[in-house]
Amino acid sequence: MKISCNDEDVQKAASAINDGAVIVFPTDTVYGLGCNPYNHDSVLSLYEIKKREKTKPFPVLGYSKEELEKIAEFSPLEEKIAEKFWPGAITLILKVKDQEIQKSLSLGEKIAVRVPNNKCALALLKECKLLVGTSANISETKPFNDPKECSENLIGYDLFIDGGIISSKGESTIVEIENNDVKILRKGSISEEMIKELN
What 3-state DSSP class applies to 48? Predict the structure, then answer.
């Protein structure tokens, strides 16, 4: 079922997520596939839809850094990066501190988190606070910017929030800090130089 980004539909999507639904929604980079990160059954459905190996944990999107601080620990440098680039296309790998989310997402010690810079995604996150946020595609295939292409190539989700075509500069940059060293795990639209300037 396709819905739009208006307030009423966002409320509808938020309540479906709370009931265990898996949804497709627009982000600032590509169309995303998401669910309640505390619902282990919904998380398993995401793995099925994406045909993704269960050894690869999913990232979590938050409405704000304050929401993400409830589930993960930020070092001073990670704080700086988050304050400079969020909402935006940077994913941080942090130490997880919420044991419930650690269990439902089958995480080790770390969790990947981000605040997306997209009005529709943020409206949804304002209601849900946290969402699993992975690209809405089959693993190892290209992600989608076009809602029509995305809905034609993906099956198994419950709701599709159509936010139109996303004009994106590419996927988010994935960053991990070890001993105050910046490690880029995936190159994206925010460059290593921009991040290292903060250190």
Answer: helix
